[in-house]
C-alpha cells in the first residue's frame, strides 16, 4: 500500500494509522470544503480507523457531509467524524474550570470519544470554589488519564495534579481578562506547576490533549492484557 496520496493541494499521510494507531486528522482552517472532501475520501479508502476533521465551521461541515455520507458533525466541538472507534477500556476524565472553557473541552472530549476512549466530563469546578473539585475527587481518582481545561490563572491543573496519580494533560485556554494575555498566563502557570509531571499542550488545543491521551492509551491497553 502507498504511504502517501498526492492530491496536488495536499500530500495525505496514508501510513500514519500503521505508525500511530490512527489515520491522519484533517485540520480544517485554511482548506476549502472541496479540499476537505478530497482528503477525507482518501483517508477513508486507505485506512480502517476513525477519520476526523477538526475546526470545521457549520457551513463547511454541511457541504462536506453532503459529499461524503455517513459522517457526523459536533457543532460545539467543530468536529467531523466518520467511523468512530468502539469504546476501549481506557477511562479519560475531561475537567473544566469554568463554563467559558467549554468549547475547548468539547473538542477534547469529542475527539477522545471518536477515537475510542471512555470519556467522562466534569464541568465548572474551578479553584474559586474548591469544594466543587473535592466533591468529584472519586471520579478523578478512577481515571486512567485526566485532561484539565482552564483559563484565567490556570490553577486548576495544579490542584488536580496534586490529587491524582494518573497522567494529567493541561490545556490552557484564552479565557480571562487583560492580564490573562489570551491564555499565555495560564500556559506559563501550567508549565511552572509545582504538581510535578504535568503534560501541557498549546492554548485552546483540546485536540492536542485528546491525542496525547491517545498516545498514553496505546501503551495502557497492551499492558492490561493477560
Task: Indicate the topology.
Elements: E1 4-6, E2 11-13, H1 16-20, E3 26-27, H2 33-46, E4 51-54, H3 58-67, E5 72-74, E6 79-82, E7 91-96, H4 102-114, E8 118-122, H5 130-135, H6 137-141, E9 145-150, H7 155-161, E10 168-172, H8 184-191, E11 199-200, H9 206-224
Parallel strand pairs: 3-4, 7-8, 7-9, 9-10, 10-11
Antiparallel strand pairs: 1-2, 4-6, 5-6
Helix pairs in contact: 2-3, 4-9
Give me a quick take on this structure.
This protein has 226 residues and is an alpha/beta fold.
Would you write up a description of this structure?
With 226 residues, this protein is an alpha/beta fold. It folds into 2 domains: 4-82, no CATH class; 91-223, Rossmann fold (3-Layer(aba) Sandwich), CATH 3.40.50. The protein is 38% helix and 19% strand. It is built from 9 helices and 11 strands. The strands form 3 sheets. The chain has a 5-stranded parallel beta sheet with strand order 8-7-9-10-11, sandwiched between helices. A 4-stranded mixed beta sheet has the order 3-4-6-5, with helices on both faces. Helix 4 links the parallel strand 7 and strand 8. Helix 2 (33-46) crosses helix 3 and helix 4 (102-114) runs parallel beside helix 9. It is globular and about 50 Å long. The chain starts with a strand and ends with a helix. The model has no long low-confidence stretch (mean pLDDT 95). Residues 90-222 form the PurE domain. One of its GO terms (biological process) is 'de novo' IMP biosynthetic process.
Amino acid at each position: 500500500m502507498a504511504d502517501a496520496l498526492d492530491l496536488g493541494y495536499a500530500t495525505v499521510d496514508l501510513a500514519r494509522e500503521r505508525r500511530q494507531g490512527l489515520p491522519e486528522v484533517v485540520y480544517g482552517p485554511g482548506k476549502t470544503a472541496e479540499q476537505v472532501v478530497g482528503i477525507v475520501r482518501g483517508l477513508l479508502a486507505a485506512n480502517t480507523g476513525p477519520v476526523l476533521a477538526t475546526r470545521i465551521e457549520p457551513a463547511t461541515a454541511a457541504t462536506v457531509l453532503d459529499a461524503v455520507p455517513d459522517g457526523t458533525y459536533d457543532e460545539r466541538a467543530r468536529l467531523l467524524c466518520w467511523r468512530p472507534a468502539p469504546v476501549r477500556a481506557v477511562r479519560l476524565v475531561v475537567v473544566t474550570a469554568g463554563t467559558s472553557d467549554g468549547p475547548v473541552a468539547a473538542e477534547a472530549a469529542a475527539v477522545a470519544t471518536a477515537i475510542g476512549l471512555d470519556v467522562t466530563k466534569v464541568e465548572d469546578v474551578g479553584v474559586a470554589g474548591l469544594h466543587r473539585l473535592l466533591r468529584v475527587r472519586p471520579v478523578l481518582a478512577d481515571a486512567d488519564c485526566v485532561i484539565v481545561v482552564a483559563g484565567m490563572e490556570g490553577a486548576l491543573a495544579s490542584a488536580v495534579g496534586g490529587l491524582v496519580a494518573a497522567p494529567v494533560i493541561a490545556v490552557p485556554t484564552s479565557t480571562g481578562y487583560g492580564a490573562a494575555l489570551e491564555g499565555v498566563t495560564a500556559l506559563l502557570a501550567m508549565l511552572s506547576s509545582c504538581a510535578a509531571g504535568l503534560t501541557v499542550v498549546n492554548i485552546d488545543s483540546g485536540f492536542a490533549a485528546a491525542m496525547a491521551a491517545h498516545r498514553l492509551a496505546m501503551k495502557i491497553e497492551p499492558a492490561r492484557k493477560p
